[in-house]
Amino acid sequence: MPRRLNDGEPGRFTATALLLIGLISCVIVYAVFSTVLRPSQDRTLLVDSAVRFTEESPDHAAAVHGREGCCRGIDHLELWGPAVKWGTDFKFNSSRECCKACKVMCNGNDGPCLCDSWVFCGNKEACGSKFGECWLKKQKDVLVPDRQGGGENVIWTSGLIFGQGQGIVGFETEHGVIHVKLHPECAPHSVYYILSLLTLRHCAGCQFHRAENRGSYWDSEGEHVHNAPYGPPYAMIQGILQAEGNMFTPIPTEHCPTISRGSVAWVGSGPEFFISLANHHEWKQSYTVFGSVLPEDMDVVETIASLPTRADVWNGVDVSVLEKPVSLTVRRMKTGQEQEGTGS
C-alpha cells in the first residue's frame, strides 16, 4: 500500500523536493517577466517584454491612475513656508490624514491651491508634545519648495500637493515638448528628484535611447488588439534622467498602478525611465509611476517612437534602439497664472 506523503522519510523528501521545485519555478517566472524593462549590466537600459500590471485601465485623469487614494510624504524632511493651518492646534493620528487635510484645500478646478505642502510629526517618542501636529503651508514657489531641514535627526514628514494645472514640467526635445504632470502625493521621492533637475544649469546626458511604437498590437487609444501579441514592439519609449557628472541615489519603490497610455515611470529605481504608448494590462504593478503625459502631447511621444531604430538584444529580449538618441531637457512650465503675473 502506498504511503502518504507525510509517512516516513521518502514522504518528507518528496515534499521538500516539491517545495524546491515550486520556489525555482517562481524565480524563473519572475526573471522572465522582469526582463522587458530591466536595465542591462553595461548600460542602464529598459528591456522588459511583458511586465506585470493589474488594475483597471486608466486615461490621464487622477482617478484613473489610482491617485485619488494616494497621500504620501517624505520622512525626515521639514518643509518651511507660511502656515495656513498651525499644527499646535491642528492635530491628526497619521501623516495620511494631514496630507488629506491639505488636499481638501487644493481641490478647485483651477489653482491656486490654498495649501500646497504639509508637515507632520508622527513619531511619539521623537515628537513628544509635538506628536500629531499637522502644519499646512503655502509655498512661494511650489516647484522650488522651501526646505528647512533633512536627515535622520529631523522628526518631521513632509509632502507636496499640486493642484490642477500645477506641477507640470516639460521634457524639451527637438521634436517638441512633452508636458508631464507630476504626482507628488503618490511618488514624493521621485517628484523631489525631478524638481532637483529643474535647478541644474544643464541636463547633458538626459535622453531617449529606445523607441518602440504600437505596431499593430495596440490601437490609437492604447487598447490592446484582441488576440494580438504583447510585443515586440512594446509600445514605449525609454530614456535616462540623470545629468552627466551628477551622482544619483536610487529611488525607493513608490506608487505602482497599472501602466496606461501616457504613464511616466522608472525602470527599477531609476534613473532609467519610460513613457508608455499603451495600456499594459499584462504588466502588473512593478513600476513606480511619477507622472503622466498631457494627452495633447502624446503626438510628440508617438513621433519619437517612430524614429529610425536598429535591432538589439537586451537580456535575451529583442528591442529597438534609436539610431540617434534624442536629447531632452527638463524645464519648468509656466501656468496661466504665472504668465498673467509676468505679463507674458
From TrEMBL:
Keywords: Membrane, Transmembrane, Transmembrane helix. The keyword Nucleus does not apply. PANTHER family: EXPRESSED PROTEIN (PTHR46873). It comes from the Eukaryota. Residues 169-320 form the PPIase cyclophilin-type domain. This is PPIase cyclophilin-type domain-containing protein. It holds the Pfam family Pro_isomerase. It comes from Capsella rubella.
